[in-house]
Write a structure and sequence with these properties.
Layout: E1 3-6, H1 11-20, E2 24-25, H2 30-36, E3 49-53, E4 59-65, H3 66-79, E5 84-87, H4 102-113, E6 122-128, H5 131-142, H6 151-157, H7 159-173, H8 178-190, E7 199-206, E8 211-223, E9 228-234, E10 239-241, E11 246-248, E12 253-259, E13 264-270, E14 276-284, E15 288-289, E16 293-305, E17 311-314, H9 316-324, H10 330-349
Parallel strand pairs: 1-2, 1-3, 7-16
Antiparallel strand pairs: 3-4, 4-6, 5-6, 7-8, 8-9, 9-12, 10-11, 12-13, 13-14, 14-16, 15-16, 16-17
Length: 352
Amino acid sequence: MQRARVRGTYSTALTKLLLDQGFEIVQPSVVIKERFGLNDTDTGLPPDLDITDRLDKQGVYVVGETISLDALVGVLQSSLDDVIVRRRAESHGIDYRQPTSDSTVLQSVNKDTGCTRSGSELDSVDIEFPAISKKNLDALRGLVTPTIDGHHHFKACGGKISYLLEMAEKMLEKDAPRNEVEKLFVESVMAEYPTVDSRIDIEHVKIDGRLFHLNNARIVDFDEKEGSLRLLRTFEKSGTYDGLRMRRDPNDYALTEMRIGDWSFRTKYFSSDGRYKGTYINLNTPVELYPDKIRYVDLEVDVCLWPDGKMEKLDLDKLEGKIYGGYVSEKLGDIVKTKLEEITDLIRLEPW
């Protein structure tokens, strides 16, 4: 039986998931002990896995024995549709933990929690929870304690929104009517989100952990009821539209159309005088909107459309490589391939 110590934003949901999968939870917080009725005499053992929040609250960082990490990854990939897994050696130098070195973290885990059995070697893994994973974890948490829809998304917002969430869920714990609490919460939270003409960052996250900021996007249209957005970006420097294999000139602009929760979005590129240059359709984990940014994980596969009607599917082999490398599950790969076929079928019927 694998023993896990869990702390942070995802602790209730992950404790529920791991207990259901036969893991043992050790050294629990007071809250976790109360929620799950854990016995002190059974929880003082050293962990095989130490699970803590990433700094950005978009997932967790796990230190432990390789065999235990493999068991955890297996559970997460079978339970969470869009979870992303990055081994320490494959993280391109990106570190989502508290700002300290690997050796310091591993020494601290050994000293403070005894996280490893005699003679074993520790490794680490970064786990990202995109939109669907957060919703899956919301459902698990809701089986244990009153939980607002979107709990883990709102916790990742931090600041005022995280505080409002805590207040709302305390009201639910006191048996306040759910519909009234959620209505008040949503009204309060929406005031923190962007509106038309807001400038917003687009966090384009690669499967391997690299993060690209598609800066200076302006919201030109936002249907809050439908969750659809249209974004405008203007390019100052020359370059190349890689997928389209076309030149990018200064003052070219891009119009991006996306909807919160969708597995893809499209961007149309234009010259400064309005000449259409082509369309790029990106497949990704469902789009998330935060007060200051849009975030998703790019799933490698894309579709390009040219003004003459030509269509090309790109980089399916890259996704296969990430499946083979263990970053994403075969289940997520199948979802992406299904979405890709849906998009190309739609294009054939009605070109975008």
